[in-house]
Amino acid sequence: MAFSVKLRRQLTNSSIRSISEESVEYYTLVEVQNRLLKVYEEDNTIFEASDVKKIVESFAYLRRFAQRQDGNAEKTFEMVKNTLIWRKEMKTPLIKDDIIPLEFYDLGAAFIHGIDLDGNVILNVRAKYAILNDKVRNAIERWLAFTMFKVVEMSMHSGKGWTLLADLTGISVTQYDLPEILWVLKVVVNYMPAGIKSVIVYNLPWFAKPFVKIVMAFIPREWKKLIHFVGHKELLKLIPKDFIPGYIENPNMQFCAPVPPDAKPLSDIDLMYLNTDRDDLINFMHNILAKVK
Predict the structure, then answer these.
(1) Per residue in 169-178, is it b (16+ CB within 10 Å) or e — as a string?
(2) Rounded to an integer, what is the distance from CA 63 to the centroid of its chain?
(3) Is residue 258 exposed (0-12), middle (13-18) or buried (19+ Cβ within 10 Å)?
(4) How far apart are CA 216 and CA 268, in angstroms?
(5) DSSP 48-97
(6) Alpha-carbon span 30 to 48, nearest angstrom
(7) In this structure, which long-range contacts are made by residues 134-140, counting pairs with CB atoms below 8 Å and at least 24 apart in sequence?
(8) Residue-wise pLDDT tens for the chain (293 aa)?
(9) Reduced to 3 states, what is the DSSP secondary structure of residue 188?
(10) For residues 46 and 94, what is the distance between their CA atoms, to the nearest angstrom?
């Protein structure tokens, strides 16, 4: 336990300053933190060391997980533990901005851009181009996992939440990736801490409505009220016009997503953590980009 206490003392003041040490919440977070540190002390291969520092040592991060579980210490402990194990399996703690290639941004299938009318960071998903095959699924799911946790951390830094804006324009009965939709749903439900404020589904096609009813059955009850199915007029009531991607107005355009300055092409990135053949990735991305342009 000395190991746990030592690490807990390394918490920054900013991570605990809004939590009274006399509150039930504080003692809940201490209990969760100490149990996680004990697990790591007994087996330091179970979590990535960087995740122990980033998540376990941070009351701000643990607090968001606790909010997902209504402050229940046992459920919070299990959720954080499972999330850290999953993140290690996905190599999420090891992936950085420079492992996300320029082609991923060029495609514009998933990117962070702008804020909604309440100041929440927006994660944009363009379903038309989120079509994977088994050769590249590992790599792209790891890029997506990194991006999803990045938007969580950006929202924590701003003191706000985040919004998912999913554009379904242009998908057809044969052109949508059901396994990937279910994978994203699994990640959000099982591994993401509190913070999502709104899920905006734009331009839902008629053939998808029966599927949506099935998906809604797996979504936590408290989240169902966050989901909005909208057209263009309704979208303007939720997202400032300046942050609505241009392809909403013109579905045929290629949107230029914001690109980090250290982003590199697929031919130059390190694939160590992606478990995917470089040629398969290049062929996949270039084939889809050829359809976009």
Answers:
(1) ebbeeeebbe
(2) 17
(3) exposed
(4) 41
(5) -HHHIIIIIT-HHHHHHHHHHTTT-HHHHHHHHHHHHHHHHHHTGGG--G
(6) 20
(7) 135/276, 135/277, 135/280, 135/284, 136/276, 136/280, 136/281, 136/284, 137/180, 138/274, 138/275, 138/276, 139/271, 139/274, 139/275, 139/276, 139/281, 140/104
(8) 333 333 333 333 334 456 767 678 899 999 999 999 999 999 999 999 999 999 999 999 999 999 999 999 999 999 999 999 999 999 999 999 889 999 888 887 889 999 999 999 999 998 877 677 889 999 999 999 999 999 999 999 999 999 999 998 878 776 666 677 778 888 988 999 999 999 999 998 888 888 788 878 877 787 788 999 999 999 999 999 999 988 888 877 767 778 888 889 999 999 999 989 999 999 988 887 776 65
(9) helix
(10) 15
Under DSSP, the state recorded for 99 is G
Decide: 39 and 46 in contact? Cβ < 8 Å: yes
Other beta carbons less than 10 A from residue 22's beta carbon: 7
Contact 130, 285 (CB under 8 A): no
Containing H/E element for 1? none
Distance set, CA 208 to CA 35, 110, 117, 171 (Å): 43, 20, 28, 10
What residue spans of 69-207 are helical by DSSP H?
73-90, 102-107, 137-158, 178-191
Tokens describing residue 278:
């470089």
Beta-sheet pairing, 110-115 with 121-126:
antiparallel
Among residues 144, 251, 233, 232, the alpha carbon closest in space to that of 188 is found at 144
Q: Is 263 helix (H, G, I), strand (E, B) or coil?
A: coil
Please name each of the domains of the chain with its CATH number. 15-90 (1.10.8), 96-290 (3.40.525.10)
